[in-house]
Amino acid sequence: MENLTECLAVRNLELWYGTFQSLRGISLGILHNRITAIIGPSGCGKSSLLRCFNRMNDLIPGSRVQGEVIFHGRNVYDAGVDPAEVRYRIGMVFQKPNPFPKSVFENVAFGPRVNGITDNLEEVVEQALHRAALWGEVKDRLHKSAMELSGGQQQRLCIARALALEPEVILMDEPCSALDPMATLKIEDLMKSLAAEYTIVIVTHNMQQAGRVSDMAAFMMMEEDRAGVLVEYGPTPQLFTKPRDKRTDDYITGRFG
After folding, report:
1. Is the distance from CB of 10 to CB of 69 less than 8 angstroms?
2. CA-CA distance, 32 to 43, in Å (whole number)?
3. Which residues pair with 222 in a beta bridge?
4. Alpha-carbon distance values, 151 to 155, 183, 250 (Å)
5. Sheet holding 63-71, edge to edge
6. CA distance linking residue 89 with residue 7, whole number of Å
7. Taking CA atoms, which of 23, 34, 76, 211 is between 20 and 30 Å from 10?
8. pLDDT (tens digit, 9 = 90+) per residue, 195-233?
9. Residue 64 neighbours by CB distance under 10 Å
10. CA distance linking residue 24 with residue 35, whole number of Å
């Protein structure tokens, strides 16, 4: 039988922005080398949860986290854990492609340079672009502005930029929402190929996309005080066809949300 181990273990996670509680009592295990989709109606805390995994919420004034996100046996929120080190190992790709106003090469080389990696940069950049399925399209324009690329190419460049740091986990927050259908399919194919080497967590509003690409799915919704809670978590085929919770079934079948 296949051995499925957890890459991230989330235990009773709670998040506040000032006095507003955004997340309440979230517990789930993110499996190694699988794609996990977080779905649910707008405002239920999907992106907030994703940003908890690599401490991106630390950058928001007034944010506060309780509970645990266990990575390699340690809570990433423990005193003494360097948030920059967490983000080095748990990379992130955002909703809108956000390349730097630099060349294609310098975009991918940026992270390694900042982290003191200067040897074999050409090899690091080429490997990251290959992994992001972009090398063939940009190999002759490495020193041209990344801003000249199409939206889909820019998003794959941002994925290459994350991969250049050799993370173990890649978080993707609505990575296709700004892209056309063809570019979206390229990103989906890329995610599926990357899952052989990386653990991927994706937030998506697109139910069809979640069904196409993910192995596991987490359904979230808001309680009356607008705090986000986890309703159901399990293998995507089971959650989509035989959900255990009526609220999940209502959302999947379009009766609410």
Report:
1. yes
2. 28
3. 228
4. 6, 8, 34
5. 74-75, 63-71, 6-17, 20-31, 228-235, 216-222, 35-39, 199-203, 169-173, 90-93
6. 12
7. 211
8. 999 999 999 999 999 999 999 999 999 999 999 999 999
9. 15
10. 23
Q: Is the pTM of this model over 0.90?
A: yes
Among candidates 140, 136, 212, which has minimal Cα distance to 176? 212
Give the pLDDT confidence score for residue 1 in this predicted structure.
Answer: 33
Phi, psi at residue 125, to the nearest 5°?
-65, -45
Helix 121-131 and helix 104-114, axial crossing angle in degrees, nearest 10 = 110
Parts of the chain with a pLDDT under 70: 1-3, 257
- Per-residue CA distances from 127 to 73, 105, 108, 130, 164 (Å): 30, 12, 10, 5, 8
Report all structural domains of the chain as residue ranges with CATH numbers, in order of start: 6-100+168-252 (3.40.50.300)
Which is nearest to 15 in space by CA: 70, 42, 75, 55?
55
Q: What is the full DSSP assignment across the chain? A: -----EEEEEEEEEEEETTEEEEEEEEEEEETT-EEEEE-STTSSHHHHHHHHTTGGGGSTTEEEEEEEEETTEETTSTT--HHHHHHHEEEE-SS----SSBHHHHHHHHHHHTT--TTHHHHHHHHHHHTT-HHHHTT-TTSBGGGS-HHHHHHHHHHHHHTT--SEEEEESTTTTS-HHHHHHHHHHHHHHTTTSEEEEE-S-HHHHHHH-SEEEEEEE-TTS-EEEEEEEEHHHHHHS-SSHHHHHHHTTS--
| CA–CA gap between residue 97 and residue 142 (Å, rounded) | 18
